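hiii so um. not sure if this is the right channel but i have a protein structure encoded as tokens and i wanna go backwards to a sequence. like what aa goes where. can anyone help
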């Protein structure tokens, strides 16, 4: 047993890819501090939740978890809440869950080592008298920080494809969204540090990189002040040209800032994947305006037209919210017709959820939950029909996939195409592909969400 083996932690992550990647950085940082990650709450001294508050349901999850494991406090275990609920609720978390000792938003993770040292030493600057014997430590930010959370100790879980954060926070303030409040103001990393991380990853054998940000299109290289900063499309192309890189993805794009130069980069650099996730939220101009999305249907469709004129076929996916306050049948019909017009390969659909601090909280004409559910189902049914038709046309075609794993029960390999489609496949016993390798697969069967095929040998 090592001297530090008593310091164990368990971390559960909720929410988007930004949170997943933040957790990789938190794990790297804690391990560097001498902590050991364990797989169960029971084995851990420190139990951490990296939380999401994008919709009410997501926020409730962490309070359920905390309630479930409250009894473990008696065994001397400590609880910490990280991420978006931490930033949003702040010290109110101590009221709702008095057994929590640490509350820390994403812009303060670089201070985690000091905060954990305080926690271990059993003292807290923020300790309140009424806290009794409990230790309470907070790391919260206003929207002022201009630092990103960069660390050399990222503990990536997948050895072949990994995330790189290029921009944190969001300045868009869509009227329904908590992110500008939970993630702070928009701040970009230097292109130089992003490229250095990409090179470091290829040295370790990574071949796929996914660039992350709430709005990657508004990336601005801070070195730009000196007159040599890269735009997003230039950074994208530069990452795509790092020797050893086979695939580069990026998410999320905001239509307002999505320029034609991004399509030009995809045309020019073959490693840039032919997939764009471009959330539209609604097909109705009236609703888009109430959402403060800063574009209208026509401008959105103009960007879709750019994608459709690209050299390779670009797969397009989106996010849609139904039941925004005041959304009429006619507004909703416009969203349905937009699905037909674009022809998405996947759509993530959500019922509008009122969130703290957001301007749309004050809007009247809330849509009843039952009606939101009805619209959601109609939307999903229409999209399913579209996908059935779209996926069918790949039957007989050959695509390159990255081998992501094997489904032993079905005796099928799990593959992903550059378009981000799942293309599972069978392979002869003597031609088993290695996980992380790239192989050619002929699609033979289509489903609404995936393809099945056979290895081309
Ligand atoms: N930055 C990204 C995505 C942020 S959150 C973007 O701008 O597209 C991911 C998705 O959650 C959003 O695209 C939106 O569809 C959904 N979402 C955000 N706030 C929501 C809310 N209050 N209720 C329902 N869905 C919401
Ligand atoms: Fe939220 Fe809008 Fe920012 Fe996306 S762009 S994170 S939806 S405020
Ligand atoms: Fe959720 Fe925060 Fe991501 S609110 S979606 S974890 S930025």
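sure thing!! here u go:
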């Amino acid at each position: 047993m090592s001297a530090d083996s008593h310091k164990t932690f368990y971390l559960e992550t909720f929410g988007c890819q930004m949170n997943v990647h933040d957790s990789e950085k938190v794990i790297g940082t804690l391990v560097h501090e001498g902590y050991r990650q364990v797989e169960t709450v029971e084995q851990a001294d420190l139990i951490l939740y990296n939380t999401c508050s994008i919709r009410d349901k997501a926020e409730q999850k962490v309070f359920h978890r905390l309630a479930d494991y409250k009894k473990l406090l008696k065994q001397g275990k400590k609880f910490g809440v990280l991420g978006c609920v931490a930033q949003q609720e702040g010290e109110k978390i101590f009221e709702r869950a008095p057994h929590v000792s640490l509350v820390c938003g994403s812009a303060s993770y670089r201070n985690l080592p000091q905060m954990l040292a305080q926690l271990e030493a059993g003292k807290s600057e923020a300790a309140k008298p009424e806290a009794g014997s409990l230790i309470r430590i907070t790391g919260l930010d206003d929207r002022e920080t201009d630092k990103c959370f960069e660390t050399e100790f990222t503990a990536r879980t997948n050895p072949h494809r990994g995330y790189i954060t290029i921009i944190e926070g969001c300045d868009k303030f869509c009227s329904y969204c908590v992110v500008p409040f939970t993630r702070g103001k928009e701040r970009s990393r230097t292109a130089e540090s992003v490229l250095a991380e990409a090179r470091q990853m290829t040295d370790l054998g990574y071949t796929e990189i996914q660039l992350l940000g709430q709005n990657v299109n508004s990336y601005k290289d801070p070195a730009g002040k000196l007159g040599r900063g890269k735009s997003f499309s230039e950074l994208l192309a530069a990452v795509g040209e790092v020797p050893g890189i086979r695939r580069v993805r990026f998410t999320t794009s905001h239509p307002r800032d999505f320029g034609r130069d991004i399509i030009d980069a995809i045309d020019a650099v073959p490693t840039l994947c032919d997939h764009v996730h471009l959330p539209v939220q609604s097909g109705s101009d009236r609703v888009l305006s109430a959402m403060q999305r800063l574009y209208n249907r026509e401008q959105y469709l103009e960007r879709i037209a750019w994608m459709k004129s690209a050299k390779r076929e670009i797969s397009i996916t989106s996010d849609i919210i139904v039941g925004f306050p005041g959304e009429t049948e006619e507004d909703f019909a416009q969203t349905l017709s937009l699905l037909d017009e674009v022809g998405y390969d996947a759509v993530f659909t959500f019922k509008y959820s009122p969130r703290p601090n957001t301007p749309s909280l004050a809007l009247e004409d809330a849509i009843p939950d039952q009606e939101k559910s009805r619209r959601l189902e109609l939307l999903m049914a229409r999209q399913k029909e579209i996908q059935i038709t779209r996926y069918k046309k790949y039957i007989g075609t050959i695509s390159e996939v990255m081998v992501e794993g094997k489904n032993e029960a079905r005796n099928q390999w799990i593959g992903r195409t550059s378009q981000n489609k799942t293309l599972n496949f069978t392979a002869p016993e003597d031609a088993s592909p290695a996980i992380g390798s790239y192989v050619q697969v002929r699609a033979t069967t289509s489903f609404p969400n995936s393809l099945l095929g056979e290895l081309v040998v």
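oh and The radius of gyration is 23 Å.
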